[in-house]
């Protein structure tokens, strides 16, 4: 079966346990959310799934279609179709948005598709396609460009870390469009968020608190539980975003 699995994942850094006993299954063509307050461990979990440098579980396994990918590099995981959109957008500079999206011509993509993905992320192709990527682009605009690039990539698993953070005018509608495009291209999405409205866009939700999964299931049930029990859940030393 095609599935990404986290099996009893633990993560410690500097003697501090950040994640413990994480078990999760992510199937094909589904949207999952990982919901939790600030400091719960969501980004750390996202980095572990992506396999960023320094992010290897202290214990446990990550399996993709049964293959153990726990110790694979980011590049090797990317090759298998896993991608991550950071909470902070990348600071790519010096090229046109068109070239960024087509990988300088290496990614074969029609003009129509280029325009369509920009529209999906709320950027007018007439204004943006030939625009240079530079400091004049806001964080929100950069994040949208990054999302457009992911749409062209059609990954098997897209991890979106706080997809609405940094986007000037938060639009749930835009996130809905992005999710449905990724799923109709055959992919699955892991939405990392502290916002109930975003979690409600998923098919299945995991509630993470103090580094562990407290509850999982139907998003509306999970959101209700989050509202009642986790709102006041405090994670020391974490500034609110
Ligand atoms: P979230 O994304 O849910 O806001 P994070 O995964 O960023 O949470 O962080 C979870 C907890 O782990 C926080 O208390 C954070 O301070 C701590 N943490 C994260 N990375 C490190 C690190 N490299 N060293 C020490 N503590 C860390
Ligand atoms: Mg945080
Ligand atoms: Mg985070």
From TrEMBL:
InterPro entries to which the protein is assigned, alphabetical: AAA+_ATPase, ABC_transporter-like_ATP-bd, ABC_transporter-like_CS, FeS-cluster_ATPase_SufC, P-loop_NTPase
Cited SMART domains: AAA
Classification via Gene3D superfamilies: P-loop containing nucleotide triphosphate hydrolases (3.40.50.300)
Metal-binding in keyword set: no
The entry's keywords: ATP-binding, Nucleotide-binding
SUPFAM superfamilies cross-referenced by the UniProt entry: P-loop containing nucleoside triphosphate hydrolases
Pfam families for this protein: ABC_tran
GO MF terms held by the record: ATP binding; ATP hydrolysis activity
Every ABC transporter domain range: 4-235
PROSITE patterns: ABC_TRANSPORTER_1 (PS00211), ABC_TRANSPORTER_2 (PS50893)
Domain of life: Bacteria
Family classification: Belongs to the ABC transporter superfamily. Ycf16 family.
PANTHER family in UniProt: ABC TRANSPORTER I FAMILY MEMBER 6, CHLOROPLASTIC
Protein name: ABC transporter, ATP-binding protein
Organism encoding this protein: Thermotoga neapolitana (strain ATCC 49049 / DSM 4359 / NBRC 107923 / NS-E)
């Amino acid at each position: 079966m095609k599935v990404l699995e986290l099996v009893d994942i633990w993560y410690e850094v500097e003697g501090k346990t950040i994640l413990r006993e994480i078990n999760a299954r992510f199937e094909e063509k589904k949207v999952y959310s990982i919901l939790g307050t600030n400091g719960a461990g969501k980004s750390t979990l996202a980095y572990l799934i992506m396999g960023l440098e320094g992010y290897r579980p202290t214990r446990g396994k990550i399996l993709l279609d049964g293959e153990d990918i726990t110790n694979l590099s980011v590049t090797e995981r990317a090759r298998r179709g896993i991608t991550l959109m950071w909470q902070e957008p990348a600071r790519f500079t010096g090229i046109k948005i068109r070239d960024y999206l087509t990988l300088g011509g290496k990614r074969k993509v029609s003009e129509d598709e280029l325009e369509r993905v920009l529209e999906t992320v709320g950027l007018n192709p007439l204004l943006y396609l030939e625009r240079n990527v530079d400091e004049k682009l806001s964080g929100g605009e950069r994040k949208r460009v990054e999302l457009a690039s992911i749409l062209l990539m059609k990954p098997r698993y897209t991890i979106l870390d706080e997809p609405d953070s940094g986007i000037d005018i938060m639009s749930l509608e835009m996130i809905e469009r992005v999710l449905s495009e990724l799923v109709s291209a055959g992919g699955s999405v892991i939405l990392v968020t502290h916002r109930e409205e975003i979690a409600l866009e998923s098919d299945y939700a995991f509630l993470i608190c103090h580094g562990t999964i407290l509850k999982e299931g139907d998003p509306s049930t999970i959101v209700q539980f989050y509202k009642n029990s986790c709102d006041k859940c405090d994670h020391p030393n974490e500034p609110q975003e």
